[in-house]
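From the shared-data thread, chain only:
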Amino acid sequence: MAKDASDHLTYFLFVLHEQKDALGAIRMWSNLKVGLDENGIWIKDLDYAQIHATEVATIPDKKCFYEKDGKLFPLNSLLPEGRTPALMWTPIERALPVKLPALNHNYFGVSEFVEIHLKESDSEQEASGMICTKEQLNDYIATAPEVRLKAIRWTLLENHSVLLLGKPLLPVNGKTYWQHGKWLLPTGYELEIPFLGELAAEILDLNPGESALFLENGTYIHIKNSDLVPLSRSSYRMTLQTL
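Structure, as tokens:
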């Protein structure tokens, strides 16, 4: 079947300056460029799916166009309204920086702070972390070969459960996690609004290699490099002796 010609068009979006905050819904589309003039804000390089997406449909007082031969046509119109604007174009994440209020560093679910939610994911994720009990880990490493433990770093969490990081994970029953940027998310889930994870990680000021372990109840645990040690029978026993 031949492709619809509309699939190959470039689409533009225009909003007034006072509608700038509404563009947060499309800021995660990194292919977009932003240009400003005295009348408002122009967004270009939307594709067919994006210009018809719910994120665009919910932006108030917008105008949508498609480009052809250097002219802009209102969506679903055959009559041009003007020429393609000659502006200085900037990537959307740079042109529209998102400023968030200070985060509650222990909880993301209260109304006065930005809310980060998980949703079930249709994608398959490769687990690189696991939380299990001390008893489960103890039973396994009692007889496990040291070479099987070498790829794993670990730390004891405040509730005395164990966090294991590395690949391949140990054959131990536990809750698995996957790496999404600087976040460790439960497998089978992803961030409802992906770009908020990046912004929150910046605000948390995580050092290179550090992660934030996101729990399903909305809390998180800062996993520092200094918290993690290579897993071995000796490191495990020494840690337990200090409790």
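The helical segments are 48-51, 54-57, 92-95, 134-141, 146-149, 194-204, 233-241.
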